[in-house]
Structures are given as C-alpha cells and as structure tokens.
Amino acid sequence: MDFITVTVSTVFSSFVSFLYTIFARRFIPPYEYGIYSTCLLLQTYVAYVQCGVHNAYNRDYPQIIGTGNIDKAIKLKNTAFTFVVGVYILSSIIIGVVLGIIFICDKLSSEYFLGYLIVLVVLILNTISDFGMNTMRMNGGYNYTALVTVIKTMVGCTVGLIFIYNFGYYGLFLLPVISALVAISLYYKRVYKGIYFTIERNILRNSMITGLPLMIGSLIWTAVASVDKFVILGFMNTEALGVYSVAQLGFSLMVLIPQSISQVFYIKISTAYGKSGNKSELIYLCNRYTLINVVCTGAVCVIGYYMLPVFVRIVMPNYVDGIGAAQIMLVGICIYGSTMLYGNIFSVLRMNKDLLWTSWILCAFNVVFSIGLVLIVGKHIDNVALGTSASYAAYSVVIIFTLSHKFGIKSMNFVKTTWIPLAIMLIPSIAFYYLIDKIYISLVYALVYISLVTIVYWRKTKIDTI
Fold first, then answer.
1. What is the rounded CA–CA span in Å between residue 100 and residue 129?
2. Are 320 and 381 within 8 A, CB to CB?
3. What tens-digit pLDDT sequence spans the chain (466 residues)?
4. Neighbouring residues of 209: CB distance < 8 A, sequence distance ≥ 6
5. Which of 199, 187, 188, 184 is nearest to 78 (CA)?
6. Residues 213, 352 contacting (CB under 8 angstroms)
7. Three-class HEC string of the chain
8. CA-CA distance, 304 to 291, in Å (whole number)?
C-alpha cells in the first residue's frame, strides 16, 4: 500500500501543479517564461556543490536502518544535514555577491538578477524540505509524506496564482518558496527537531568518497535534462525556450509516475538488501514493481496525449506551438519510464562504474540526437523534443542489455515486463487519436481500452516474471 499512497498523492499534487503551470502561462508571455527557465538552470547546477553527501545519505540511511544500527543512522543524519545545508548557504552567498557585481556593472538585467537570487534561496529551502521528506519515508512515514505533499502543493499553488495574477513574472518563483516553507513546518517535529548541527568527520569522509560517484551520475542526468534547453538557447532564442516549456510540462507529467514509484521502491529494496544481502530478491521485487509502473505510466501517457493539447489551446493559446513537442516528449519519456526502476539496482548494489557509463551514454545520445536533428531537419523545438525522446528510448535499451549481461538473465525477460505491455497499451490508444475526428469520442475509446489492459496486467503483478 505504500507505493499506492505515495503515487496517488504525487499524481494528485503533480496534476494540481500541472494545472497551475498552465494557468500561470496564461498571464506570462513565452519570453518571460524563457527567462524563468534559464534562471532555474542555475539552481539545478549549484545543487551539486554538496560533493555527493546527500546522495550517500539517501542510499546509506535506509541500509543502516535495515541493520538495526540506530546510533550510526542518527550520526549520519546529523552530519549529512549540517554539511549539505551549510555548503548551500555558503555557495549561495558567494554566487550572490558575484551576481551583484555583474548587475552593478550593467551586464545583467534586473529580471535575471532577481530571478537568480530567488532560485538560490529556493535551492536551500527545497533541500531542507526534501531532506525531511526522504528521512520521513526512510523511517516508514510514507502516509505522512503523502499528506504533506498534498498540503504544500495546494497552499503553494493557491498563493502562487494570486501573486502571478498581481505581479506577473516574479510570482513564478513564489510557488516553490511557499511549498517548501509549508513542508518544513510540517516536518519540523517529526524530523528536524531531533537533528543536531554536528559533523562526524569519518562519516562525512566516507559519504563523500562513496557518494561522489552517485552525484556524478546524477550530474550527468541533470546535463541530460538540460541539453534540450541549451540547444534551444544556442540555436534558437529565449522565446522558443518559453514555448518549449509546454514540452517540459509533458516531461514532468510523464515522469512523475515512475519517479514516485521509484522513490518508494528504492527505499524498500535498500532496506531489504540491508537485511538479506540477496541480489535475486532485488530482481524479483523490481519485476513486480516495474509491471505496476508500466501500467500506471502507460495510462498517464495516453491521457496526457489527449488532454494536454486541449488545455493548451483553451488556457494558454500563446503556447500552442509547443503542443507537438509535448506529445513527442510524452511518448519518449514513457518508454524510458518503463525501465526506470531497474536503474535503481545500480545504485543499491554500488555498481558505480555501470551507473556512470550508462549515464554518460544517455548524455551522449541526447547531445547527438538533439543537435543532429536540429542541424539536419531544422531549427524547431519539435526536433529537439524528438531528439530528447529518442535518446531516452535508446537509454532504455542500454539498461536492459546491461542488466541482462550482469545478472545472466535473458533480455526478453526484461522486455516482457516493460516494452511489450507498454506497446500493447500505447499503440492502439494513440491510434484512436488520429483515426477518429472527434477527440472526446476517441478519448472514450482509449480509456475503455487501457482500463481493460490495466485490469489484465494488474493481476499479473502477483506473478514472478523471471
């Protein structure tokens, strides 16, 4: 039931945030939204100054809990929290001073300057909030984190829309600030109150050594997620990046299901592996969760494919040029999402070399495909989305063949829990979209079909597929 609670809360909150971003774009023109997206890139990359300590904490804490060594777990929590928050505050101050000098020299507009400063504050608040959520989940408090997720989203979106309506561009930055503050206040007694600002040097050193490969892998993933934005800024313009934010909506919508299931799955297999040390059990659990993930992800992809264009045309007509890119992104990320849970095995088993080289491959795929399609086919955001989607689909192939080789399992055994059920769900459902003129009638056909497929495959989650 844990994954259901977390997934439902995540889906609901993401849907609310999805509606929020759509309505926000009604009041924010593409150019200003492009500036906002550019500012977020700073927040994204500054997050990696923590040297892998946060990554090591998320991996090691549940395993230590699994062994029953509570004292060591507490020391790790104190050390990780103190170091990560401290290094982010210091980094933000240094970057803020540099940005101030650039702004005074009239080399940076006020929209960018204030935007960069706000995202640095958001980084610190989000880090504290996420630390509370992850720790709560690792201690078994899944239901409480689900409740907090819903509350912070509702409050943040409500306040955010009010400020966007009144203040425009700057109101975009308020949602993450308010949401993080609400979450921090709700986690205070259950998580932060027991934390002391102390650092155990041996624990910190070990976390840096073992967490750095994880962080590098995560950094590569961030680069992968940013390639399309840099390609658009390099070959097109800021307004095109703003329009492309519709495709990013598609990405966010599509990735939320596998990510939420993956978060629960990661903690569960880490704890289970800490207790038993049985690698076969990891594969068994992964197959069970993966089939559930595919069914949920496929359903979200189909619904998003139909409804996203409707929302965009009605609520944010200035962004209609991004519809095609968004639909392309939905399908591409859905294919990758079907194999996302298997990637956690690399981290749990500390297969750092495999984690890094597969991540590098994805980054290379994205650079080659995105830039290649833009240069060969044309400078259009649809080609960037197609290149990004193709790279994720190719990466899905890499994950399957790597695990097949490492564990001596036939690739087809992974395929039949990922691509095959996904293809069965997507191909006929999306075909209805193009074969039937009236979108609502085709949507009804698609919903009936995926409901039948969901019932069949839901029963199969009780069967070991290997």
1. 27
2. no
3. 555 676 677 777 877 877 787 788 888 888 888 888 888 888 889 989 988 898 888 888 887 877 778 888 888 899 999 999 999 999 999 999 999 999 998 888 888 898 899 999 999 999 999 898 888 888 777 788 888 888 998 898 888 888 888 877 788 888 889 999 999 999 988 888 888 888 888 989 988 888 887 788 778 778 877 888 889 988 988 889 889 988 887 777 777 777 777 767 777 766 766 676 666 667 777 777 787 788 888 888 898 899 888 888 888 888 899 999 999 999 988 888 888 777 777 767 766 677 677 777 877 888 899 899 999 998 999 999 999 888 888 888 888 888 787 777 788 878 887 888 888 989 999 999 998 888 889 989 998 998 888 887 766 655 444 4
4. none
5. 199
6. yes
7. CHHHHHHHHHHHHHHHHHHHHHHHHHHCCHHHHHHHHHHHHHHHHHHHHHCCHHHHHHHHHHHHHHHCCHHHHHHHHHHHHHHHHHHHHHHHHHHHHHHHHHHHCCCCCHHHHHHHHHHHHHHHHHHHHHHHHHHHHHCCCHHHHHHHHHHHHHHHHHHHHHHHHHHHHHHHHHHHHHHHHHHHHHHCCCCHHHCCCCCCHHHHHHHHHHHHHHHHHHHHHHHHHHHHHHHHHHHCCHHHHHHHHHHHHHHHHHHHHHHHHHHHHHHHHHHHHHHHCCHHHHHHHHHHHHHHHHHHHHHHHHHHHHHHHHHHHHHCHHHHHHHHHHHHHHHHHHHHHCCHHHHHHHHHCCCHHHHHHHHHHHHHHHHHHHHHHHHHCCCCHHHHHHHHHHHHHHHHHHHHHHHHHHHCCCHHHHHCCCHHHHHHHHHHHHHHHHHCCCHHHHHHHHHHHHHHHHHHHHHHCCCCCC
8. 20
Q: Tokens for 404?
A: 């097949």
Position 75: which residue type?
K
Q: How far is it, in rounded angstroms, from Cα 311 to Cα 381? A: 19
| Token pair listed for 1 | 């039931």
Nearest Cα to Cα of residue 342 among 329, 355, 330: 355
Residue 113: phi and psi, rounded to 5, are -60, -55
| Distance separating alpha carbons of residues 366 and 152, to the nearest angstrom | 34
Q: How far apart are CA 244 and CA 412, in angstroms?
A: 36
- pTM of this structure: 0.71
**What contacts 12, CB < 8 A, 6 or more positions away?**
150, 153
* 3-class secondary structure per residue, 30-43: HHHHHHHHHHHHHH
